[in-house]
Amino acid sequence: HVSLGPSANAITAHLLNLQGLAATDAESTCNPNITHTVANETYVPRVLIVDQASRFSTFHQSPQVDESVATWNGPVHVQEQEDDVQVDKSKTAALQEAASALAYSSYSRYHVSSNPSVFTSASNGRHVNWNDLGEEEDEEDPAELARRQERAKQKWQLYTRQPLEEQLDSFWKDTPHNSLSWMDYWMPPHPPYHHYAVPLAFSNDSLMQQHWDTYHMGTTTAEDLLETFRKLLETCDSVQGVTILSQGHGIYAGLTSALLQDLEQECRTAGRLVMNVTDNTDASDKENDSSKEQGWQPAHAIRVRRQLQSGLALFDFSSRAHAVLPLSLNTSKESSLFAASAQVALALETATLAYRLNGSNSRQSRIGLNGCFYSGVGPSDEGHGIASSLSFGEYLACLQPSPQYSLLELEIMSASDNTWNQTLFQGTSLERQQMLQRGGRDANVTRPRDVLPGAWLDSNLNNGCMTSLSPETGSTSRSIHHQFALTSSLRPSKTNIPTFSTSQYLAFLMEGMAFRYRPEVSMGTVVGESASTLTSGGYGAGSYWKHLFSEGDKSPVLSVLSNSTRSYGYLTSV
What is the value of pTM for the model shown? Predict the structure, then answer.
């Protein structure tokens, strides 16, 4: 994953937190090797981040924690100071220290146990067991060793983890979210600083705006980015693909274009998914400020330059990437960048589950497919294909049935917990079956007229349940547009998981997409772990989610990633 620009990094920080939680749970449904690598016996995200040098925290440059400390002696005490800015920095430093103490512990969910035994195959006559070499030592009874380790872990849970998580919870209660930078809420564990950070030479936004016309950025920064990226590729056993999250204009877009060009040469077979972010509220505020200070003409020039950059970036992205997903961050006084980026990250984490699943727990996760080629399919009598997991290439093939259609759109369900279950259930074959069973012989007479499933897929402005996280596309009704591909991914709410099984939820998604909108390709993904379960007790990465959304424990996460003619209305605004 590569992230370029402060708005994109705000989304990436939340996304990395969620992906780390999903891949490191004891009963996790996601494969950690897809998104993470191992450094110092700890799972760390495989990521590259580009931003101004001043935005990288000094704390992030030294993330190592003393592993010899098995227990925490007490909470971190924050010394109050007169300077408000210094108080904020000390609080965030204390937050990162507490989160690091949890993440880098040998009892952490992120910890990877090393295997001391090195041997060849036992069937080989030259079999060597290195544990048998050297002086013989008294070995501890395995049962006693397991009991001792369990007691130590329980002690850590009680005297270390619990006080630290209480401290994290106190921070999120007392600290305004709109004062935080992305580096403050990107929680440990982190890769080594020189492995993920590409700081730009510019110190402020005004200097960056002076270089708006150098769309393909100067050689120094581009070469640093590409060199760091090549080193990141060397740590991968097999590169399936690259996801790039970038701001849709300016220097960051130019660097993204240079990176895509290099990828075409270095990794021709790797999939390329680009997500370009636009902060519409921030852009309009800057234009209004420029208009007040300098007059109409300079403000108009800034607007034209921004649109020109966006058009050049979108052309390059669509030419060099397999799929392009425009995203919109609508920040305001009511919705900070922290909250807006968290909503987008939650939708992206759910939408990308299909290629991150480990495929070992068919009861907890299920993928349904129609109209596309895929491998590893199990038997199904449900009218659609079933797969336990997809490769990144298969995932992109589902999103892009034809190379000429590459522009995507992302939506998230906005219905409350009281209505979404019934909305998914309405019009499905299971509902008709239950109505027939209740009605007996007269069911065909007394039952109401059949309603097609999938009403939830339309916009909430058209009696649907979906809210778009992509830029405005003109007409919001899905029914008047052609659907090249529709993919729906669901994390049910914690209270409704026992209501239906994962296979029933998957049938609701597949029937809703197929009968009402008839896409060329459709894919549905259901994971039996709710978002609240995912983030509860999740160390630093999960500590703030319950404070972010008022209905965090009740609301499901249903995200729809579509490829249709509706998304092309965005081109008229570029």
Answer: 0.85
DSSP string spanning 46-111? Answer: --EEEEEGGGS-TGGG-----TT--S--SPPPPPP-S-HHHHHHHHHHHHHHHHHHHHTSTTSTTB
Bridge pairing between strands 271-278 and 323-328: parallel
Helix (H, G, I), strand (E, B), or coil: what is residue 217?
coil
DSSP, residue by residue, 382-431? SSSEEES---HHHHHHHH-SSTT--B-EEEEE---HHHHHHHHHTTSHHH
Q: Pick the closest to residue 259 from 222, 288, 314, 290 (CA basis).
A: 222
Beta-carbon-side half-sphere exposure of residue 215 (alpha carbons within 13 Å): 15
List average pLDDT for each run of 10 residues in the chain, which is 574 residues long: 94 96 85 91 93 75 42 42 48 90 92 56 47 56 83 89 90 86 93 89 51 46 80 80 89 89 87 89 49 64 78 88 91 78 94 90 82 64 81 92 88 74 85 77 52 84 83 74 93 74 90 91 92 85 83 74 83 63
329: CB partners within 8 A, 6+ apart: 7, 10, 11, 277, 278, 279, 280, 281, 282, 337, 340, 341, 344
7: helix, coil or strand?
Answer: helix
- Please provide the distance, in angstroms rounded to a whole number, between the alpha carbons at the two ends of the chain: 26
Determine if residue 485 is left, alpha or beta; phi over 0 gives left, psi from -120 to 50 gives alpha, anything else beta: beta
Contact yes or no for 419/383 (Cβ under 8 A): no
Identify whether the C-beta of residue 226 lies closer than 8 Å to the C-beta of residue 258. yes
Q: What is the pLDDT of residue 122?
A: 42
Structure tokens at 193: 């600083």
Residue 91 has a pLDDT of 85
Query: Distance (Å, rounded) from C-alpha 356 to C-alpha 374?
Result: 15
Position 58 scores a pLDDT of 55
Cis-peptide into 191, omega within 30 deg:
no
Strand order in the sheet with 271-278: 197-200, 48-52, 2-4, 241-247, 271-278, 323-328
Give, for 274, the enclosing helix (H) or strand (E).
strand 271-278
| Cα–Cα distance, 192 to 190 (Å, whole number) | 6
- Write down the H helix ranges in 198-277: 205-209, 219-234, 250-266
Q: What distance in Å separates the CA atoms of residue 149 and residue 141, rounded to the nearest whole number?
A: 12
> Residue 358's CB: how many other CB atoms inside 10 A?
17
Q: How many CA within 13 A on the CB side of residue 207?
A: 6
pLDDT at 225: 81
Phi, psi of 240 (to 5 degrees): -80, -35
SS3 of the chain: helix, strand, coil, percent, to 5:
50, 15, 35
